[in-house]
Write a structure and sequence with these properties.
The chain has four domains: about 90 residues, no CATH class; about 140 residues, Ankyrin repeat-containing domain (Serine Threonine Protein Phosphatase 5, Tetratricopeptide repeat, Alpha Horseshoe), CATH 1.25.40.20; about 230 residues, P-loop containing nucleotide triphosphate hydrolases (Rossmann fold, 3-Layer(aba) Sandwich); about 130 residues, Helicase, Ruva Protein, domain 3. By secondary structure, it is of the alpha/beta class. It is about 50% helix and about 10% strand. A hairpin with a 7-residue loop joins strand 10 and strand 11. One of its GO terms (molecular function) is ATP binding.
């Protein structure tokens, strides 16, 4: 039924548009006198010219010809069918209709009757109610929506009539009619409105009262949407001065708010939420970022880190969390390049783009394309020691001056970017040195022994690590461009127990969500599983140990039919007794069978499990 309605709406819309164009041609009407929604779509987008607001506005049409009135009536009839077929929800339709009509009394009644309604609900074409109120210059409606909690900085998801029609699977005429009847008929259909905030629209329609109200209620006058800031859209000098002053005030207030937030919740604490251990590494990175955030860094040079240490100890994760902190989890703010893909000399073209005349010249480079889209990104060069030396030569200019020239000769400025390189060079030496330092701390019985905190000595850095780096990279100018070399050390015993506990909590959550099984464990389980740690593989060795000794048994019990939905499993440690063949503690699973605390049975003692285990052994022996 719905598909039939869509087909009918689309057919009626096309029919009405065709009739209208035919009638307009028959009476030789001027194109500028035909309603915007009923014109033939232009062949290409119009270029935005200064002042920017003029390119978005269209003249108001007049309807003084009888045949044109008839054409409009036919078009509106087709629109009515299209509206009935494409409206996603009657409640949403009523909400947006109230806002468009501008009745604050009806809005209050609607919100009282629907107390849990999302005030930032989007129209199925992408805009919010506050966008509608702002573009129509309705100050009272804007105030009512803001009082109800509407977001003054919400961006419009509507792009333009062609792109939106393609994404939504609608006819362009249907989108035009919805846009002009339910949003505004004074805007050009072919312009790009993606990301426009209510402030952008209020400036376009030159509603000074709406602009002042939005600014007073927290609208950000610095947001850039589709290449346009609010200031760029203002054509009145008084409006421009107002926006420039407010943008400066907003930026200062935002900086103060962020500074206060950093004082209350320092970067070190944020990073420790996601990374276990590595106290020294986190402190070093946080100190460098703090200098940059507070204006105590060289603005002409980007920040460059080199993370050294074994695999699986948090190097990549720290870079990810750094990007999330700086850019508030924005997409494209973290660029990761696996440098093992650049082991050959010619693969530098993959990084910055092929030169003219070569295949792939128009495609651009993997780094240059992403940096051009987000010049302030956090860029991770993972396993940089595996890249060809000539590939690293390209990075010299990038690290020194914060700019990069692509294969087309275009320069990308990225002085505010942060570059992080990771490497396993000297990982064995660093690990052995850290283990030795921990042993010395333990023997001295100092206060740091409990936490296992150690600090890499300057002599070790100069006499051991730097020669390794110099021997591999073969150039001092490359190493000289690195602001901080950060050392990642093997985990201490306390940190290993935290790693095991984190892994067990992960599997307990998954067991509850996927199988409705409750998983608990005794306190001694962490220390036993931590014994599977291998400093060459880092946290991955703990992950694999938990999977082998705990999760494999759970999977076998489920396959044998012993473990069912609603069960409770206790992970315990069996310590070997005198006379037993086992010399090492083992992990065992107990299944709760009754309501009392001691009503548990060993899962391994179940006949079904033993039969399944015997079957597995028999099949393995046949291989």
């Amino acid at each position: 039924m719905k598909a039939a309605g869509n087909s009918l709406a689309s057919f009626t819309g096309r029919l009405s548009a065709s009739c209208t164009r035919a009638m307009c041609r028959s009476v030789s009407l001027d194109r500028n006198r035909v309603p915007k929604a009923l014109r033939s779509p232009p062949n290409r987008f119009l270029k935005v010219r200064e002042p920017a607001a003029r390119s978005f506005r269209v003249p108001q049409p007049t309807f003084d010809h009888p045949k044109l009135k008839l054409a409009v009536a036919i078009g509106l009839a087709g629109f009515t069918v299209a509206q009935c077929a494409t409206s996603k929800n009657n409640l949403d339709s009523k909400f947006f209709r109230i806002v468009k009509q501008g009745s604050t009394k009806e809005l209050r009644a609607f919100l009282e009757a629907n107390s849990k309604y999302n005030i930032d609900k989007r129209h199925f074409l992408g805009w919010t109610a506050l966008h509608v109120a702002a573009v129509n210059g309705n100050v009272e409606m804007v105030r009512s929506l803001l009082d109800a909690g509407a977001d003054p900085n919400a961006g419009d998801d509507y792009v333009n009539v062609y792109r939106t029609a393609s994404e939504k699977g609608l006819h362009t005429l249907d989108v035009m009619l919805h846009r002009e009847s339910e949003f505004s008929e004074s805007l050009r259909a072919q312009e790009n409105y993606l990301g426009f905030t209510p402030l952008h629209y209020a400036i376009l329609v030159e509603s000074v009262d709406c602009v002042k109200l939005l600014l007073a209620r927290g609208a950000n006058p610095s947001i850039e949407a589709s290449g346009h800031t609010p200031v760029a859209l203002a054509k009145d000098n008084e409006m421009k001065h107002l926006l420039e002053n407010e943008a400066e005030k907003f930026q200062l207030a935002e900086q103060e708010r962020e500074a206060e937030e950093r004082r209350r919740f320092p970067l070190e604490q944020r990073l420790k939420q996601y990374i276990i251990g590595q106290e020294a590494a986190i402190s070093t990175v946080a100190a460098a970022i703090r200098r940059k955030e507070n204006g105590w860094a060289d603005d002409e040079h980007p920040l460059v880190f080199l993370f050294l240490g074994s695999s699986g100890i948090g190097k990549t994760e720290l870079a990810k969390q750094l990007a999330n902190y700086i850019h508030k989890n924005k997409t494209n703010s973290f660029i990761r390049l696996d440098m093992s893909e650049y082991q050959e000399k010619h693969e530098v073209a993959k990084l910055i783009g092929a030169p003219p005349g070569y295949v792939g010249h128009d495609a651009g480079g993997q780094l240059t394309k992403q940096l051009r889209a987000y010049p302030n990104a956090v860029v991770l060069f993972d396993e940089v020691d595996k890249a060809h030396p000539d590939v690293l030569t390209v990075l010299l200019q990038l690290f020194d001056e914060g700019r990069l020239t692509d294969g087309k000769g275009k320069t990308i400025e990225c002085k505010n970017a942060i570059f992080v390189m990771t490497s396993n060079l000297g990982s064995d030496e660093i690990a052995n040195h850290a283990i030795q330092l921990r042993a010395e701390v333990l023997n001295n019985k100092t206060a740091k022994a409990a936490t296992g905190e150690v600090k890499i000595t300057k002599n070790f850095k100069e006499q051991v690590v730097r020669p390794i780096l110099k021997r591999h990279f073969k150039r001092d100018e490359f190493l000289g461009r690195i602001n901080e070399i950060v050392y990642f050390l093997p985990f201490s015993n306390a940190e290993l127990n935290r790693l095991v506990s984190k892994e067990l909590r992960f599997w307990a959550k998954k067991a509850e969500e996927k199988h409705r099984v409750t998983l608990n464990w005794d306190t001694g389980v962490e220390s036993v599983l931590a014994g599977g740690y291998n400093h060459h593989y880092g946290a991955r060795s703990i992950k694999h140990e938990v999977e082998r000794r705990v999760i494999s048994k759970l999977a076998a019990a489920q396959e044998a039919g012993v473990l069912k939905a609603g069960a409770t499993v206790q992970v315990v440690v069996h310590w070997p007794r005198p006379g037993e063949s086992e010399s090492e503690p083992t992990i065992r699973l107990r299944l709760k069978t009754g309501s009392r605390e001691r009503d548990f049975v060993e899962i391994g003692d179940s006949p079904d499990i033993k039969a399944l285990s015997h079957s597995f052994t028999k099949n393995i022996n046949k291989i």
